[in-house]
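From: lab user (bench 3)
To: helpdesk
Subject: output format question, protein + nicotinamide-adenine-dinucleotide

Hello, I'm new to running complex predictions and I'm not sure whether the block I got back is the full result or only part of it. Here's what I submitted:
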Amino acid sequence: MAQGQQLRLLENKWDDGVAASMDERDLLLYRSNLLGADKRITNYGGGNTSAKVIDKDPLSGEDVDVLWVKGSGGDVGTIKLDGFATLYMSKLDQLRSIYKGQEHEDEMVGLLTFCTFNLNPRAASIDTALHAYLPYRHVDHMHPDAVIAIAATRNSRALTHQIFGDEIGWIAWRRPGFELGLELSRFAKEHPDAKGVVLESHGLFTWADEAKACYELTLRIINKAIAWFDCQTKGKTIFGGEAVQSLPAEKRQAVAAQLMPEIRAHIGTGERKIGHFDDSDAVLEFVNSNGLRDLAALGTSCPDHFLRTKIRPLVLDFDPATGSVEAVLAGLGTAIADYRKHYGSYYERSRHPDSPGIRDANAVVYLVPGVGMITFARDKATARIAGEFYVNAINVMRGASTVDTYVGLPEQEAFDIEYWLLEEAKLQRMPKSKSLAGRVGLVTGGAGGIGRAIAGKMMSEGACVVLADIDVEALARTEAEFSKRFGKDQVRSLVLDVTDEGAVLDGFARTATQFGGLDILVSNAGIASSEPVESTTLAMWDRNMDILAKGYFLVAREAFRMMRRQKLGGSVVFIASKNGLAASPNASAYCTAKAAEIHLARCLALEGAEAAIRVNVVNPDAVLRGSKIWTGEWREQRAAAYNMSTDELEDHYRKRSMLKRSVLPEDVAEATYFFASDLSAKSTGNIINVDAGNAQSFTR
Ligand code: NAD
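Helpdesk reply: Thanks, we reran it on our side. This is the complete output you should expect:
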């Protein structure tokens, strides 16, 4: 708990009414989801739950004892029944008789497949043995910060006994696996009154013969630890006291917005990274403290934590008193290079002859005094979760260092987990990255017909996308739709008027704090107008020029600034129009503004080339479906110009095209994706017309 917070115990959420109709499997699921819903009970993906259930054997029809245990890679908070591995208890027992000892424990993981009940494809995890051999029907293994804080102290054994008495035992650090499973089993048999154990530097095990009893026990034990810490830490100096003060929230965002693209520049040359920023109270208390550097250097303790965060973070030299970002930037390259060097030496010191090759040596977590925590990973969810894990680690260090001496995991143990061959095999099984993975895109007019199709295409190729628009309602709807389709992490929305210089600057800064920087700008926001020149008002002329010429200039200028700082190149795509090349009657303001966009793109292509910033143009024509432009006056004016009803327009344009086809927003999205991605790595200053063929707009 950060200073000033009230003691908040875990609430019992078990509802007998809900549970009454459930069988043992459903009760296991119910319990798991309840436990995983509170990050104080277990971190994302951390811990596991199990139940030993009587099932019917599909061949013999006989009742058999089956272990249901969270499968590899799942999260108890969001798990469904198919997330559990199921294994015959009789076969798991047989495994014990063929176990050849600790040097061979990793081989047992492969043998778990042979214990599978009912051809369940869910892979059993390394922790299966930790549940299987405990002589209780229900087992919870959780990673509560309050218990890990005890498990990560120098005197964790004595403290465990002091807090829980004989009810909860203690087992010295051992990497999870078959051997630890046997040790837990021995402990439980030798201590029949014990209700669980604290695993040093790792977490908590609790057990019972009923699902509800197990749940309530887990909560009671964690609450005991939470209350004990509250009492022990009251009035004590936390993290050695405050060394610096936080900047105001707006300034923290501004500093992070400046730092994140620069960090990305140094770490994104191999695999592109996505960023996440957190300036919550718990983080600020730590990064502002006297103890920051010493504690951060000790590294995290729970294996789950550092697998996500790397063993230690990189603390940046920012002084909130001077507020000078330039000073940090001047030393950033060296700080990042030093981190990589240290990581390389850690790898060399600890490696075994058969260890997998060194992985990306860059830090995942960057701590900035007075500002907060920045995390970078291959995608947004991973960066966010790494941040959440480091908050878990902060909570652990806070508790442990206040009541005793905090100890991280020994370096060799940390390495052996990080480069565990079983862990490597899991990484190798991960699907290949999509073409825009690790890329950040911003689409102006992203809530409109063409913008939405472009954003959707980019997200389906793995990009994180910021939708920027002035249509608040359509923006909220589009963001919600994409969150559902691609997950909340991949999309953000900004109410942004491209004609407002201040709003554009602010929008790009927000993009930096949300995702870490920018790789792709699609300037697409637009309107259309139709009027003979004599009746074109100055207001109409200015509106076209404002949105289509000035607006495209403003967002492109900001994209150039950020991309240059990032030094990773970039792609700018202008959605102009056939009308920018082909003169049309009664639309001089629109056509002229679109022509300005096209020429601006050419000029920028020239300027951006030396920084690997490519600038290209997509020219749509007559995209009626989904477009808001085509629902208003423009539709009526065009229909009137051609002397036909509005319903006849789409067919009119189709017939007018050389290929006799209608152009859809998805067609424009495909061309834009081509320019946004590396497929067009060698194209700049180019134009693709997506107009089903129109000789008037041939580019040469
Ligand atoms: P649309 O109206 O469906 O989408 C345009 C979006 O831009 C809207 O959501 C609107 O709210 C937004 N917008 C308008 N002014 C803005 C501002 N100042 N700041 C931020 N956002 C603003 O239209 P669409 O058909 O999807 O058009 C997208 C682009 O394609 C436009 O630039 C348009 O000129 C161009 N274009 C469209 C067609 C076509 O037939 N639909 C043809 C050629 C070119």
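A quick orientation on your result: The longest helix spans residues 538-566. Let us know if anything else is unclear.
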